[in-house]
Design a protein that fits this description.
The protein is 81% helix and 0% strand. The chain is built from seven helices and no strands. The chain has helices spanning 6-25, 29-35, 47-67, 73-99, 103-127, 129-134, 136-155.
Length: 156
Amino acid sequence: MKTINVTLLKCIGIPLAAGAISALASGGGMRVFSVLEKPPLSPPGWLFPVVWTVLYLLMGLASYLILTAQADQQAISQALTVYGYQLLVNVLWPIFFFDFGWYFFSFLWLILLWLLIAMTIKQFYSISKTAAYLLLPYLAWVTFAGYLNLGIWWLN
């Protein structure tokens, strides 16, 4: 019988928990989203939790690869610190957007998130190319979210 890799489960559980906290804190987010004027290419509301779940799983796997890499411990610590900051910024965005309705501020916040994700990818790349590649869909999705966020600010 195989043993469960507790470290992997923790690494995956952290971003999933962050996403759950964010979703709970911004409770009626999808109701708010459903009544907003949206730009072209806006996906249906049901797609967001599906995509975010996949992205959180990829983040967790990437962080596991970094945490368990045979690399300089200071580089690992710095990379995981930036990763932690981006995760915190990620958690706060839905609260600013859905709960407070700060659409333009939320767009600026997404720029900060995008920059932190890019920094995380750069730092992860120096430790594990695979970990860095796992974060590319996240960066792409946040880029798309920026387009949606800016469009919603403009239209509402």
